[in-house]
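Model it.
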Amino acid sequence: QVQLVESGGGLVQAGDSLRLSCAASGGTFSTYRMGWFRQAPGKEREFVAAVTWAGGSTTYTDSVKGRFTISRDNAKNTVYLQMNSLELEDTAVYYCAADRYDGIRYWGQGTQVTVSS
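Modeled.
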């Protein structure tokens, strides 16, 4: 069983930056594909970014490409999401996810990001 704890959310103005962190415990972190998802009020949860177990490959949803960067530090069992040039539409609860080799996905509890004008 993997436990994921997100941190780093908050209230910022449009154009600002935030870095989210997700600390993992209870599993072999380096073997999990890690990702970030978000859910805005009244909308479904959507994929934001993912990174492979070794950090060599990353994927992003189109709306965040060039602004967000996902990275991981396997020595610290932590995955990060650097968010730059934040927009109002980025307001959401951001969730960390860990994908095991057999398809099992673990979720964190989420951290709120609010972008104001």
